[in-house]
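Archive entry. Fields below.
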Amino acid sequence: MSRRYDSRTTIFSPEGRLYQVEYAMEAIGNAGSAIGILSKDGVVLVGEKKVTSKLLQTSTSTEKMYKIDDHIACAVAGIMSDANILINTARVQAQRYTFSYQEPMPVEQLVQSLCDTKQGYTQFGGLRPFGVSFLFAGWDKNYGFQLYMSDPSGNYGGWKAAAIGANNQAAQSMLKQDYKDNISREEAVQLALKVLSKTMDSTSLTCDKLELAEVFLSSSGKVKYEVCTPDALSKLLVKYGVTQPPAEA
Amino acid sequence: MECVFGMVGKGFALVVADSSAVNSILVHKSNEDKIMVLDSHKLMGASGEAGDRAQFTEYVQKNVALYQYRNGIPLTTKAAANFMRGELATALRKNPYMVNIVLAGYDKETGPSLYFIDYIATLHKVDKAAFGYGSYFALSMMDRHYHPDMTVDEAIKLADQCIEEIRSRLVVAPQNFIIKIVDKDGAREHSWRRTTKD
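PREDICTED_STRUCTURE:
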């Protein structure tokens, strides 16, 4: 029904819905999931990798996690080519701010600015919306560590724990049950891996199916964004009991 | 013969400006306030072309306010100074603003700060700054008597010494001066130094 209102992105249906935006969110619901958790000393991002092949050159590039600026990183879920455009836009916006003010861009302002861009594609221009949801993790001097989730409609919110992509509703309710305020970064990593292992479709978790990144303050007080190495990730998976240990020879 | 100068003290910053509005040989008024209050904790003393001065300072003031409305937090003094410099730099190669600015501000995390911004978009963070012919006298006076962490009384005394030099040595010296101060309690007018009533 209401098919005639589907083809144009920038008009409402009689029921007051924007079908193209909803279809974009459908597309994301089929993509690899990502989870973000805010802890008192950092933000943890975990992503499920859909493209797993021995032939993939994994050492240099990441599939789910991207650095926007020295103090902001993001995890993506959805159409990767759309995500690349938006990530580049976010990077330019962050640098433009620093060019004007010689200070790092506050995290919420970056998210807001990117969401304003996304909203434009739901209102004018006749172009389809971006099929990407983001989890932004960052630190600034105004509000410390922050986690934001944004979707194709251009809405965003600040979260203590959030999930995007496949099975995000199941992940979100699990997070709601188990999240405690003031958890440490280590506990947040554990919770994220546990929740992801339960919601992922695959039978067993190995380090090549996941990406883990953390945003935290180093001992010198600078913001650090670190992607976990596959070896360290394997050890964590064994430690938290979410994977089979390697079979003894 | 406009003159603006400023200095940083212990927990505060001071900006002094003359208050003459002159057109060739005519003095329009001698109680012109050239130190704009940019927001609750920033002062901007400006000298130069009168039209450009009003246009640019008001433009900056409104943009600083807009930032605060949009984002719920005020700009730091450093961010405001760099924003101003950027605007001057962008206009420079097309139609420059002929305005020189001494920006004083107080930030909770970093304390008082003073910025020297001239009409060709030079930006320096400084402890003492001055513009105009009066700068020859004010800077020399401050170089001799300024020391870090002065009290308000010491800084006002030094400002008065600078004003006295300008009055006695500059051939067409401005008659009245206004002094404004910014500290943790905000930006406000401190006092006037008058030789004529307007």
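CURATOR_NOTE: The CA atoms of residues 35 and 45 of chain B lie 4 Å apart.
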